[in-house]
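The methods section describes the discrete structure representation at length, but only in general terms. Since the whole study asks how a given chain folds, the encoding of that fold should be made plain. An entry of this sort, consisting of the sequence and the corresponding backbone structure tokens, reads as follows:

. . .
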Amino acid sequence: MIKAIQMQPSIAVIGSACLALGMGLPAVALSPKPVFDRVDRFSTNLPTATGADEADIYYPVSSPNASVDSLPVVLLLQGALVDKADYTNFASQVAQYGFAVIVPNHIRTATDPVTGQAFTGFFPEQQQVNEVLAYATAANTNTASPLANLLNPNKLGLIGHSLGGAVGLSAIQDICFPFLCTGRFSRPPELMAGVFYGSTFRDPRFGGMIPPIENDGIPVALIAGDRDGVVGNFAAVEETYEQIQDSPKALVTIQGANHYGITNEDSLRDPVRPTLDQDIATETIARWSGLFLRASLLNDSGALDYIYNQGDGLDENVSVTSEVATVPEPTSLVGILAFGVLGTARRLKRRQ
């Protein structure tokens, strides 16, 4: 077990987006603070088609102000050759926002689609989406599991780092993309959102072209450090965002972070050193990830406001481009607050 990481909020509770827009609607309490103060962790063997993956699972612990109930499931798809142990801080902090975060070590042999060279190591793949969903569904009804009766397996979100983000983007499109997928893949209806750090969707078979990303209305966020020396060209991240066909979507740029801002420690695999403190970078990525997932999976109005309206103005380390979905005319106040929009699509592009 691990102790909860105490989060340091950057702002006090503020009013809702609707109130900020002068609509005269009741205020919605907004805070970037996590919902839970403590997180537990356990390790398990997660069944796969070829055996089992060692996995760490993080989940919040009830506190006087919040009880654990119907936690959405979040699969963290690791970066290539990055051990699950390197995501301890990040996964703990995301779990504090009210999720069961599953972090497998998925070992396989992957073949480079351009050179044909084969590599064996930690390489995520799309089949993990269905395997983790099956595990979560079984664990929720298994009285011997620490997760018994705590989960809502009908709500699944993805977090991906680097290659894991490309795997997640492919899974959301319901395609079996070479190198990212083996065998067959069918996107489960439970998959409802994805947020990916340090990821692009370049197709190396065609000179790094980024094809249209048909996300079928599933919310997608890209988070990236502006000192990422692994993606090659930061413009590829921006182009990946532009190629996401359906809103809602967001691009969160973290100033001073590099490719490994999401891990416990920086890595020399990125030739560019970060200028943002590692702990601050990790907390920032976890906060924006957790709130994006709360907005997308739980229709949390405060999280919606933070992601699409006020968060970038309140976080000195980020700049945000976002686009919310077009919503039919709401018939109730609940409809307005649930989507955080007033019946029309808006593009918000804010730069510090």
